[in-house]
Specification:
Elements: H1 3-15, H2 24-35, H3 43-50, H4 55-67, H5 73-84, E1 95-104, E2 114-118, E3 123-136, E4 141-148, H6 152-155, H7 158-164, H8 175-188, E5 195-198, H9 200-203, H10 206-214, E6 219-222, E7 228-230, E8 261-262, H11 263-267, E9 275-281, E10 286-298, E11 311-317, E12 327-331, H12 339-346, H13 351-361, H14 373-396
Parallel strand pairs: 1-5, 5-6
Antiparallel strand pairs: 1-3, 2-3, 3-4, 6-12, 7-8, 7-10, 9-10, 10-11, 11-12
Helix pairs in contact: 1-2, 1-5, 2-3, 2-4, 2-14, 3-4, 5-14
Length: 467
């Protein structure tokens, strides 16, 4: 099947989730535009390339579809996952990757925009931040949930909420809380159970880890070096002896010599024995570093507990030549898991970084210029849908390179002037209301081909997981 024909089949597959046939044209035009190698992928450039001779009308149509139309993002994302999941290689290890990404934004009126940490810039800046949950396997990964983080100032402001169309049911939630909601939803939908991977911003939240365990899932999550744990040699004291009067003491106690140790202190002690582990082949060489693992128990709220928390794995990376360890993880992997398995699974989280890079550079994930809640999520859903098609195409044609099928960008009329240009308001010199009738196209030419993403090499190794 030709690629254009396959893409049309894919779009029909997605359109089944829109709920109304009048929305099909908007979905198809928007996604086709996202596949084109154009510099900017906001609504107006997409409209200009979808129908060059009727840009304003097409712009209004696409804007309504993405910013106003009431179709379900979750339903479309579910269709996207169904399309690409069979080729992700989850049978050789299934992973659910939690992460967030920032979108730099000027002004203060776009929904959720605030002065907060932006990963894209590597610093605190004016931006929007979205939390995502991705499904990953040996072959690749694709987001299956994506939600804007709404800062407390926004969540508590009824005026701004109304202007931007924030749904009433959306209350303030931290990023780990949003991620846990996404995981619960995926579990309820019957998505194949995966090992949850996340960085320290999520992993250091005890409630987040506990929520994952309650759902019957395993995790390998990043931790901060100041987090404290108990080891087999360092344990709290039992409850105080009962005097015979009052309530019987039940809480564990800390005392000098019986205090939890930080991950950093433990990682730098003689208890941890480091060895070199290679986890996959990189672009130019094998990726390897020094690692060590140890069974520990998280010490959070021990003084309020009657018993110790369950034992789990601590994994530490300490690159040779560095003054101190670089990364820490806690994992509920089985006790018989090997160091190599723990390292391989922990390093699977890097996939989401590549996904975001492609989504932003190739599909315009950060290009949406509207201010509303609905448009922000609809645009992201369609970007992910376009990305997922190329992900599946790449996986189904092993070795096909990204630019093997580069599409041609439809040409724009010579007199085309983008909205916002100072010259766009210049009065017409003539009075003929139909100056371009002779050149009007009677039908739209289809794009001949579409770009493909790069295919990497993945080692097939995974931690035993529960279903």
């Amino acid at each position: 099947m030709e690629m254009v024909e396959e893409f049309d089949v894919y779009l029909e597959h997605l359109c089944e989730a829109l709920g109304h046939r009048d929305r099909h044209a908007g979905m198809k035009d928007y996604c086709r535009g996202l596949m084109l190698p154009i510099e900017r992928k906001s609504v107006e450039p997409l409209a200009a390339h979808a129908d060059p001779l009727h840009v304003r009308a097409k712009h209004q149509s696409l804007h309504h579809f993405v910013a106003k139309s009431e179709w379900s993002d979750a339903a479309v994302m579910d269709r996207v996952r169904q399309w690409v999941a069979p080729l992700l290689g989850t049978e050789d290890g299934c992973y659910w990757i939690v992460d967030d990404t920032g979108h730099p934004k000027q002004g203060k009126h776009s929904v959720g925009v605030a002065h907060q940490y932006c990963g894209q810039l590597g610093k605190t800046a004016n931006c929007q931040v979205a939390v995502s949950l991705s499904l990953a396997g040996a072959g690749g990964s694709v987001p299956m949930a994506y939600q804007l983080y709404l800062p407390e100032g926004w969540a508590a402001d009824p005026v701004r909420r109304k202007v931007c169309g924030v749904p009433e049911e959306i209350a303030f939630a931290t990023k780990p809380q949003i991620a846990l909601q996404q995981i619960r939803a995926a579990r309820a939908e019957g998505v194949a159970a995966g090992v949850v991977l996340a960085d320290a911003a999520y992993g250091d939240e005890t409630d987040f880890r506990d929520g994952i365990t309650e759902l019957g899932l395993l995790y390998v999550v990043g931790m901060r070096p100041a987090t404290t744990v108990w080891t087999s040699d360092i344990l709290p004291l039992p409850p105080k002896p009962w005097s015979g009067r009052g309530l019987k003491p039940t809480r564990l106690r800390t005392a000098p010599g019986h205090e939890p140790i930080t991950l950093k202190a433990l990682a730098m002690s003689a208890t941890m024995l480091y060895q070199k582990v290679t986890w996959r082949e990189g672009t130019n060489t094998a990726l390897s570093s020094r690692f060590a693992c140890l069974r520990v128990r998280a010490a959070h709220r021990t003084h309020l507990s009657q018993s110790l928390r369950a034992e789990e794995w601590l994994l530490v990376e300490w690159p040779e030549g560095d003054a101190e360890p670089a990364r820490y993880w806690l994992s509920t992997a089985p006790a018989e898991a090997t160091l190599e398995q723990l390292v391989f699974v922990a390093k699977m989280r890097w996939r989401i970084e590549r996904d975001y890079e492609e989504l932003k550079q190739e599909f315009g994930l950060s290009h949406y210029e509207g201010r509303g809640w609905t448009g922000f999520h609809h645009h992201a859903t369609l970007c992910i849908a376009a990305y997922a098609f190329l992900m599946r195409k790449r996986l189904s044609q092993d070795g096909l390179k990204k630019n093997d099928a580069q599409p041609k960008t439809p040409g724009l009329p010579k007199n085309y002037i983008p909205r916002g240009s100072p010259t766009s308001a210049t009065p017409h010199t003539g009075f003929n209301p139909h100056p371009s009738l002779a050149n009007r196209l009677h039908h739209r030419a289809k794009t001949a081909a579409m770009p493909l993403l790069r295919k990497g090499k993945w080692e097939r190794k995974f931690v035993t997981q529960s279903n």
